[in-house]
Amino acid sequence: MMKKTADRLLLVLALLPAIVASEETAPIEITSTVTHSMFSVAGGKDMDALKCTKPQRRKSPEPRPAPSQGDNQKQDPVPAGSEEEIIALSEEEEAAMLKKAFAPPSPEELRRNLPKSEWIKKFHATLLGASRQRIARVGMWGGSHMAAEFFTAEFRQALQDRYGVGGPGHINLLYGRPGLNLPVSAFCRTGEWHEALPPRTVSSPHIVSGLGLYAMTANTPQAALEIDLRSTHAKYRAHHAALHFLRQPGGGSFDLIVDGENIGTLDTEGQRAIGVVEISAAMPLSRIELRVSQAKRVTLLGLFAEDHQGVVLDNFGIAGAAGNYWRGVDPELFKAVATERPYEAVVLAYGTNDVTGKTWNPERYRQDYRQTLIAMRAALPQAACILVTPGDRVTRFYVKKIVKVKIGKRKTVNKTQVTTHYDLLTFPQRHAQAAAIQRELGDEYQCMVWDMSIVMREMGGAYALMKRSPPWMANDLIHLTPAGYREMAKRFVGWLELSSGKGP
Fold first, then answer.
1. Domain boundaries in the chain?
2. 414-442 per-position pLDDT tens digit
3. Cβ contact 200:322 at 8 Å
4. Could you tell me which of 349, 351, 357, 450 has the C-alpha nearest to residue 395?
5. Which of 242, 231, 285, 263 has the alpha carbon at shortest distance from 42?
6. Residue 8: is its pLDDT beyond 60?
7. pLDDT tens per residue across span 247-303
8. Which letter does DSSP use for residue 266 in this model?
9. Which of 243, 91, 151 is CA-nearest to residue 482?
10. What is the pTM of this model?
């Protein structure tokens, strides 16, 4: 027995160098140490608006559009799903379809969707106390509904109208992915950047990530980022910026340029840990630029811009994200970065991407979502918590068949006839079940639950919202239009008693 143990020990020692060198293997040891680099600059520099040169495509597992100028265009970006073709139904077809629709919410369902008054009071008291002394932070994680920024922009404004303008908050370094918009003027990327997102399957290896549940890596000197921190929202001013990166064996270095001046070179070589670059300015910052300075790996985990006081909403929405993302990141490193940037409140808006597919198992969903909340509470144990359920959704599919059409008295020709079919029952039922599960687990993990599916069904459901003029639902009947997202956000703000004249 002792000989077998000794042989195993020798084998482990012999393989250790290969294990350490392998990038595919989870790190053997992760420290929760956070290292800081501090810079003070004057700020207040009047710079021309940032304009991006023709961007290069970012390396990722699947093809994605290249990044472009920030969301300072005059018109709203086209939301996901709005380009899909709609084939109108006849009045008879529509009437027959609506008879099979999921029922509107009952009075009992509407009552259950009311917030708990004591939790609402605690939410407001927490933000009020923190915002009077410093920056109070609210973090919002979710999928494409949040990534689009239409919902979160309304929520951010309501928070800041009440508790003070704390700045734009998180600037998502994944910008360029479909459906992702930013609260700043422009974001330019050059060179090759590789993104890492958590796996959706539990058995896959963890990734190292920041608070946004992603990482961006470059290893060529041509790689650079440049961000215009000034926002189209005139009230947003950033006197403080924080860049999170990964310290790692073999890490490279990058130059940091603030308002056109190179303030230093940061080395990311070291034991695996979180690195934080903090930049403070007497006057508002205009621009941050980062340039990889050698052919070694530089991994970025997040960028944040904020003021001295007030409230900040960090939008961590990623199109396609699911609740399982929280289970796919290294827990110890995530705890370290959450401790570095704590939150007064956390909002999780997941569900649409968790109930897709031909079949769905509610009990499996309950188990998975419980693990999501366990992971969230492990990193953010004291934060006020709000869960936003998936909204209403309709499935549409087309049926084609060949029909004979008479031409004259004797001749007939074959033509393709396309019939639209809508399923107004399957996914509305699933989303209602998912919302019930979130409500059940929300009580267990001290989270309020806002049921967006009930709100949308009370308004007639996804199909009725698409038929509005102007529409509030995109043609894919999954996503909303910009106007629809803003309307949902206003109702969420009212539910949270953030509307004018409400609150403590």
1. 29-495
2. 777 666 778 899 999 999 999 999 999 99
3. yes
4. 357
5. 285
6. no
7. 999 999 999 999 999 999 999 999 999 999 999 999 999 999 999 998 999 999 999
8. E
9. 151
10. 0.84
DSSP code of residue 393: -
Report the share of the chain in percent with pLDDT over 70.
84
Rounded to whole angstroms, the Cα distance separating 382 from 343 reads 9
What tokens were used for 13? 């020692």
Distance of CA 23 to the CA centre of its chain: 26
d(CA 117, CA 123): 10
Let me know the angle formed at the C-alpha of 108 by 394 and 433, rounded to the nearest 5 degrees. Answer: 40
CATH 3.40.50.1110 assigned to 29-495: yes
Q: With contact defined as beta carbons under 8 Å apart, do 234 and 250 qualify?
A: no
DSSP letters spanning 155-212? HHHHHHHHH-B---EEE-TTBTBTT---SSSEEEEES--EEE---SSTTSPPB---TT
Instruction: Select from 169, 141, 194 the least CA-distant residue to 325.
Output: 141
Q: Per-residue pLDDT tens for 49-60?
A: 888 875 444 443
Q: Cβ atoms within 10 A of the Cβ of 483, count?
A: 17
Residue for token pair 């929300």: 442
* Cα(415)–Cα(65) distance, integer angstroms: 37
* CA angle in degrees (0–180, nearest 5) for 16-21-25: 85
User: Do 340 and 379 contact (CB within 8 A), yes or no?
Assistant: no
